[in-house]
Amino acid sequence: MRQLFPTEHTVGQELLGIQVSFFECSGIAIGVCSSHKIANARGRCTFLHGWASIAKCGSSVLQPRFDLASLFPPIGAMPSLGEFTEVSTAMTKVFRFEALRIVKLKAKAVKILTENVKKLLMRSASRNSLEIWKEGLYERMMRRASSK
Question: Does the keyword Transferase apply (predicted)?
Fold first, then answer.
């Protein structure tokens, strides 16, 4: 996972790092690391959404604003990017499933869900029947009591 981010080879006071990785399957990953001095999480997401819409549509659909720091100035300096790249305890695992296995898993999940729904419907139906029976019994008892 680490090789998808631009901080792999750089340690210092960089404010922004962007790395584009191309895969053999024609996929692409864009890794962005930025200092908190540049943008917070919302600013980063806005930047990436704006970049994606420009790449997709050819024109800027989203008008990003990056002036939050002028409204709410940062209290103190955050650590540089390099401080986050020294030690990593992250672990990556890849799971591959055959298409037939996925179909079987989906069928099993649907079966379990429908069985649970049927049980729930039967329970609520029997509760409703019991309530109706109780109400009918109560009414009969009240009629008998009032007729005496």
Answer: yes
